[in-house]
Amino acid sequence: MELKLKRPLLFFDIESTGLNIASDSIVELSFVKILPEEGGANETVIKTWRLCPWDYVNNCQKKMDPGAQKVHGISDDDVKDCPKFQDVVAEIGTFMADSDLAGFNSAKFDLPMLAEEFERVRVYCHKNFKMDLHEKKMVDVQNIFHQREPRNLKAAHIFYCGCDFEGAHGAEADTIATYEVLKGQLDRYPYDKETDPDGLQNDVDWLAQYSTGARKVLDYAGRIALSANDEPIVNFGKHKGKPAKQVWEEDPSYFDWVEKGDFTLDTKRQFANLKEQYMAEMRARAGRPASEASLQGLMGKFNGGKLF
Q: I need a labelling partner for 138 at 20 to 30 A (CA). Which of 55, 102, 219, 302 fits?
């Protein structure tokens, strides 16, 4: 069954130096872009990059973790002469423009890793660079698979497509296989309002909600959860379970600790966004008539007696 698309859907897969999103980097990135086509098969465009993983702080190539190399077979020498992510970021951004995203287990690893690479470019190279993956819909084919038939990508391809596929753990082969699996899932669990209302709806918004919508977090690492009414909640450490706004009001130095700590750049950015929001709200309150005692209280809590 072909996908019914309102806008392009971008399947993607990465291979990396390791599994630590905050410290590892992408060495291979592959996109399979599905373009909407009326009355026929959707057009497919494939693009793959081999990348030299870069340590922006020490200005040198990052080393491959032996365990990761054993999985994907890419060595340090294989990528030493390849472009860095920052060299092709404009090309990648253009290819991703106006597309929703899809992948296999991508919501937990590939998506946060890709977001981290974009953040590194913004922080270390191009301050005005903008790419917010949070704005895109994300269909995680593995989550659909695990809810229906809990196995891995190889088994999924056999189950839904009737055959194995060559090149497993290569970014391009895995990405193409993921696209084929999603089409097979739509064939196997067709939605019908009358006869099968529990089937899969051939709609990216619905598939994104079904496969990734239950994970309500503000950052990819899950350090900031969202309550039932979408209020940011600190989801780790000594303030776990507290509203982020309450933490900022009672312990503003906690936000500075996060900024300087060993967290992903995406997590730091979301904390910084919240801090900026809370500061704006405080300025707005301070602009209203207030007693001298209340203003002195604010001045004593923030910035060593200086309100701003």
A: 55
End-to-end alpha-carbon separation of the chain, Å?
58
With a CB cutoff of 8 Å and minimum separation 6, the contacts of 278 are 245, 248, 249
- Displacement of CA 69 from its chain's centroid (Å): 23
Distance CA 58, CA 60 (A): 6
pLDDT, tens digit, 9 for 90 and up, residues 135-174: 999 999 998 988 887 678 888 898 899 988 887 778 999 9
Do strands 60-61 and 100-103 pair parallel, antiparallel, or not at all (unpaired)? unpaired
User: How confident is the prediction for the chain on average, in pLDDT?
Assistant: 89
Q: In 166-188, which positions are buried (b, 16+ CB within 10 angstroms) versus exposed (e)?
A: eeeebbbbbbbbbbbbbbbbbee
Q: Give the CA radius of gyration of the chain.
A: 22
Q: Residue 233 and residue 230: Cα distance in Å, rounded?
A: 9
Q: How many CB atoms lie within 10 A of CB 131?
A: 18
